[in-house]
Amino acid sequence: MHDFSLYFELGWQHICDWQGYDHILFVAVLCGSYLLTDWRKVLILVTAFTVGHSITLALSALNVISVNTSLIEFLIPVTIIITAFINIVKKKRSPGTLRITYVLALFFGLIHGLGFSNYLKSLLGKSSNITAQLLAFNLGLEFGQVLIVLCILIVSFILLNILKIQRREWTLFLSSAIFGIAFIMCIERFALIHFR
Fold first, then answer.
1. CA 43: distance to chain centroid?
2. Are 1 and 132 in contact (CB under 8 A)?
């Protein structure tokens, strides 16, 4: 039980850590164009992302797949740029664009899971039975992710309902700012890719 709470705490602290803010940026831009009243859609979206990163987190932590760390670190801000760009160019939501967003969230979750796995592997060391730690860490990541989503939705609620900012203006501002940050991250990380 002690191990479970330890890895749970490490999971949520890892995703909420401002030093590794790329995952925070992705979750923020993923749900930043939604409202509190859209909580069902956001739940499906976050679940799709969760399923994706749970798969690759488990496969990588169990040494089923091996990844080029520098390439994954480059691809994470690419997922942020694509998500931000979609928010910027889409005028209104249709069932078709929602389905595409869910599929992208699932696919991008696969990439982010590989990024999480490097940190988890360093924590696990030579442990042979890692199922409980893997589950606890993943649940911790989800808890941290939900905290980020709640913060973004509450900020959106305040800006739109109290300060009366237009929804489209908020979406454009948030997505453009995150797009710019992620673009700089891409440039910095591209130079560090080591192809095998």
1. 13
2. no
On whether the CB atoms of residues 44 and 175 are closer than 8 A, the answer is no
Could you give the number of structural domains in the chain? 1
Tokens of 76: 């994470």
Q: Hey, how many other C-beta atoms are within 10 angstroms of the C-beta on 89?
A: 8
- In this structure, is residue 58 part of a structural domain? yes
pLDDT, one tens digit per residue, over 36-86 is: 899 888 988 988 998 898 899 889 888 888 888 899 999 999 999 999 999
Residue 196 lies in a domain: no
182 is in which domain, residue-wise? 2-190
Whether 52 is covered by a domain: the verdict is: yes
- CA–CA distances in Å: residue 150 to residues 35, 53, 146, 157: 10, 20, 6, 10
Q: CA–CA separation, 180 vs 68, rounded Å?
A: 25
Could you tell me which residues come within 8 angstroms of residue 63 by beta carbon, excluding any fewer than 6 positions away?
none
SS3 132: helix
Contact partners, residue 168, CB within 8 Å, separation at least 6 = none
Would the pTM of this model clear 0.85, i.e. be above it?
yes
Residue 108 lies in a domain: yes
Please identify which residue in the block is written with the tokens 């993943």.
138
For residue 62, the Cα-to-chain-centroid distance in whole angstroms is 21
